[in-house]
């Protein structure tokens, strides 16, 4: 399939971003089942959390031409989400790509594959998530293939340009803006209750009593 390019996605609403910056990302797992990348994609460089809009890139085989092109148009707040087509041998992201994205204000990069130059990448502070690392890199082969700002798959999740990307030490989450907007206030309220819950546990309370689990268990098998 020849190279395909879609329109740049709209920026995320600043109010939504501010709420997401306060959120404990795993709280979303209390309410949602979809959007969570598989555990093989882990943070390999950087230490900060990622909140941003998805800029999607699909590369083909060993060729990173499309990625180099897209990186030059990175905007502040972008998170590059790279679909390698299942290639876990060739690293499309290394020192130069990380430098480019960092200098242009990217919030992070998520690669469904491997990366390289980890020691050098660390200097830029850019959070980089991938399945592993390799010294075998992609090449600039100028193949008419792949795409930018098109639907991709990353970590088993379908990702569209403009989707919300959240990532931290625990893992990576992708979702349409509407999904996140619908749940964010509930999730933040849940987070706000946790300190009181933890304090009650410190004072000797039983977790099942606090959450209602013990009451549910007591009703198992009741006629």
Distinctive features:
223 residues, alpha/beta, 9-stranded mixed sheet, 30% helix
What does it look like?
This protein is an alpha/beta fold and 223 residues long. It is 30% helix and 23% strand. It is built from seven helices and 13 strands. The chain has helices at 14-22, 65-71, 95-103, 118-122, 177-202, 207-211, 213-218, and strands at residues 4-5, 42-45, 50-58, 78-83, 108-112, 114-115, 128-130, 132-133, 147-148, 152-154, 157-159, 164-168, 171-175. The strands form three sheets. Strands 1, 2, 3, 4, 5, 7, 9, 12 and 13 form a nine-stranded mixed β-sheet that branches. α1 packs parallel to α5 (177-202). The longest helix has 26 residues, at 177-202. The protein starts with a strand and ends in a 5-residue tail after the last helix. The model has no long low-confidence stretch (mean pLDDT 96).
């Amino acid at each position: 399939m020849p190279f395909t390019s879609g329109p740049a996605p709209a920026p995320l609403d600043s109010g939504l971003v501010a709420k997401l910056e306060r959120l404990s990302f795993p709280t979303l797992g209390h309410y949602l089942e979809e959007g969570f990348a598989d555990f093989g994609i882990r943070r390999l460089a950087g230490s900060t959390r990622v909140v941003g809009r998805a800029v999607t890139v699909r590369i083909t085989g060993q060729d990173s031409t499309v990625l180099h092109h897209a990186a030059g148009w990175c905007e502040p707040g972008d998170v590059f989400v790279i679909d390698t087509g299942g290639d876990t041998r060739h690293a499309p992201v290394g020192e130069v790509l990380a430098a480019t994205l960092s200098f242009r204000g990217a919030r992070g990069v998520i690669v469904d594959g491997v990366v390289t130059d980890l020691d050098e990448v660390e200097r830029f502070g850019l959070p980089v998530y991938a399945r592993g690392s390799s010294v075998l890199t992609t090449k600039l082969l100028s193949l008419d293939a792949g795409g930018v700002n098109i639907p991709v798959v990353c970590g088993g999740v379908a990702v569209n340009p403009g989707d919300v990307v959240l990532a931290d030490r625990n893992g990576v989450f992708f979702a349409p803006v509407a999904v996140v907007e619908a749940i964010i206030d509930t999730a933040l309220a849940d987070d706000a209750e946790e300190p009181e819950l933890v304090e009650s546990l410190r004072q000797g309370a039983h977790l099942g009593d606090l959450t209602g689990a013990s009451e549910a268990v007591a009703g198992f098998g009741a006629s």
